[in-house]
Amino acid sequence: MPTPVLMPRLGESVNEGTISKWLKAPGDKVEEFEALVEVNTDKVDTEIAAPASGTLLKILVENGATVSAGTLLAMIGEAGEANAEAAPPPAMQAVQAAEPESPAPAVPIAAPARTGDLGFISPVVARIAAEHNVNLTQVTGSGLGGRITKKDVLAYVEQGAAPVQAAPAPVQPPAPVKAPTPLPVAPSISGADSELIPHTSLRRAIAEHMVLSKHTSPHVTTVMEADMSRVTAHRLANKEAFAKDGVNLTFTAYFISAIVSALKAFPMVNSSWSEAGILVHRQINLGMAVSLGDEGLIVPVIKNADSLSLLGLARSINDLANRARARKLLPDEVKGGTFTITNHGTGSSLFATPVINQPQCGILGAGAIQKRAVVISDPSLGDVIAIRPMVYLSFTFDHRILDGASADHFLAKVVQSLQNF
Fold this sequence. Notes:
alpha+beta; CATH 2.40.50.100; 2 domains; 4-stranded antiparallel sheet; 23% helix
């Protein structure tokens, strides 16, 4: 019987995704674990592997459609096999997962007699259970947390356990799909003087998120400058030692360290608006905007940034930025942020008014570090003009949550942390 290809849950908090591109066409031969389709979730493209070898009989969800986890995407079987659109057997219909012993992505599965949650089940386990008509509720799992593994199912089959006789599953249409939210369409322009560049899924996602943010919260930006003399000296003295550990010590690590100190001092900034009240987050999860060149940007998140040293922050920044540019981030790694930094100074920008990454309270922009003439107070000489490495810091905040004074207090703490590093 044909094997269903189901939309997996690609992370603990990722319940849907958009079909970016089918890598195979109906009638193509596919191998088990071979990349079959690309799915986009929050600007992260993930390849979904084939759960079985055979022929791709039918594609049921086309490119551009957004579907929830568990949706039937396609069917794989033998060429000319009937019932290509039949619903998956009862043992393959609801919870998904990932199996440590298999590189394939998760496939949803459940059993009708189950009184609780089967937990995480791999595509290999799902296929074996379907082939032998095994009710997985009767299989004892030996994996982590009682997870059912391939060995558990094979042992159950070898013991000659009686298969469950289930009534044939009725033919079900695929779950309803949700089309992408349309954006306003610009008037068509004809002629040889213009070129229409189709939107990528990443560019469309960025556009929708930015418009949503501007319509969601009232944006206000406050700007201060910081003397980076001590940070610059510390970086110069420690850059080589960090490099020996394989870590590139960037200024972003210092900015994030200062932000963490300020968020601890002013926890209201580490919050989100809700109609019931202001939700103050206990965890400090720092998102950092990473440019992908002409393709756009993505914001991976450093979880529990307040628990990391400067070395730990620098290492996390290197890892996430490198994998972001290589398109190797996991969907969960761009979720859960409670505050965001964008270091637009890497492009020589002096200061900017960044857009809030919803549903966060604010975002801090760090400009280019420039040597400028500034007035400083010397105990013996009084006010003198000196050359100092200076940086503009802009803090865009949600005016529903913060007022000007509280926002300025937070930003002043960031400045103080940098200048007294």
